[in-house]
Amino acid sequence: MPDEQRTTSTATAETATAERAIADRLRLSLRGEVIDRGHPGYDEARAVWNGLIDRRPALIARCSGTADVVEAVRAAREHRPVVSIRGGGHQVAGSGVCDDGLVIDLSRMKGVHVDPAARTARAQAGVRWGELDRETQLHGLATPGGEISATGIAGLTLGGGFGFVMRTFGLSCDSLRSLEIVTADGTVRTASRDEEPDLFWAARGGGRGIGVVTSFEYDLHALGPEVAGVLVLHPYERAEDVLRAWRDATCTAPETVTPELLLWSVPALPVIPEELHGANCVMVGAVYGGPPDDGASAALAPQRELGPPLIDLSGTLPYVTLQSANTWRFPDGERYFMKSHFMDELSDEAIRTVLDWDSRRPTPESLTVIRTLGGAVARVGPDDSAFAHRSARYNVSFDAGWQDPALDEAAIGWARSAWDALRPFSSGGTYVNFAGLGEDASELRGAVFGSHEERLEGIRAAYDPEGLFAPAARRP
């Protein structure tokens, strides 16, 4: 056998031996399931929401609770595989799975407890927003969550957390009271403003790579079960006029209103005439963060009155329906790539640039989203959490969606090119949850964390001096 082949064969045998050793260690100590490459459920267990991600971990430790997480972390310290941490699994970059390493999988940890008197909820890290909303809405309470009910609470909260009512109640991480986290030494810690305050600071917007968060305690706010909202579809031919008028309306919107604009295709809903299905359009949406009969109509009116619409679907609806309304348009297993800019203003030239690139969308599933910040988001001090973009007025995200792998290059290329074209108008920031794929991480790190990067690195080094979670910290 040639020396090169012999070396490769020896390395392969050593790798297999190491994988068996950690698998044996975990099977002795975990109550949950340990899934290796030969397990019949391996391909299902390694799959994530984004079908573009096809990684093959050596092992998946499917934890049943915090004790399992402690054992998985201790095994990782002993054997030193690459480690990734999976929560709800609905993340563009697919960072919850890694190649040839250990996935600490929390997706089966689904416990939720609501205390309606204290207006708090504690939820384990595998919970998704739809599952949390279902429990809190029994009491007419909510914490600001994502815009897709299948999104995991963990990744969204640790990255900041955009949502339909963020101008009223802040980002998801702003309602965080405390969290339980297993750090790299295998210790279970509670982090809050009073306990482990550095960990708590880092977890609110910069939480990747600081440990394994096993549960979140949130403040709840009176909202629902019905909410008032705007959803108006405008013809694409009027896109520039609508976008300018919408921009002007957002500048005077009260904090009770969170406006959003999407450049997308008309959804195939029964309430929309069939001849409009699939046509490009401008969607203007907004949600009122209070009782639907308490001044909601007047507050929402400027978002609703931007010219003659294709169709107006505005009205009141259950909060849980609002939260799940777009989930069907982002099904599991399709391919996604998203990249965003924070912006302080939307100049006419920036609007024209957005529309120029939006007109080149490669598939009907692809879209451009402009979200408004300010309000409660901006009231949090710029250095009070790791989220680094409190002063930004807008976030513009180019979201490619497609099914055919043959379109990978075209779809990703469109989003990256559009992002590059808008860069001159950006405030220099990027939202970590819409930051591309792993290969984008090093380029964007400063844009994601801004002036907080050095403090974050210091906190990570203090709690993880050997860099057990360093690969997770480097991922978007």
UniProtKB/TrEMBL annotation:
Every FAD-binding PCMH-type domain range: 53-223
Leader peptide range in chain numbering: none
Protein's UniProt keywords contain DNA-binding: no
The keyword Flavoprotein appears for this protein: yes
Cofactor field: FAD
Source species: Streptomyces griseicoloratus
MF terms (GO), sorted A to Z: FAD binding; oxidoreductase activity
Similarity field: Belongs to the oxygen-dependent FAD-linked oxidoreductase family.
Record-annotated membrane-spanning stretches: none
Keywords: FAD, Flavoprotein, Oxidoreductase
Name assigned to this protein: FAD-binding oxidoreductase
Upper classification of the organism: Bacteria, Bacillati, Actinomycetota, Actinomycetes, Kitasatosporales
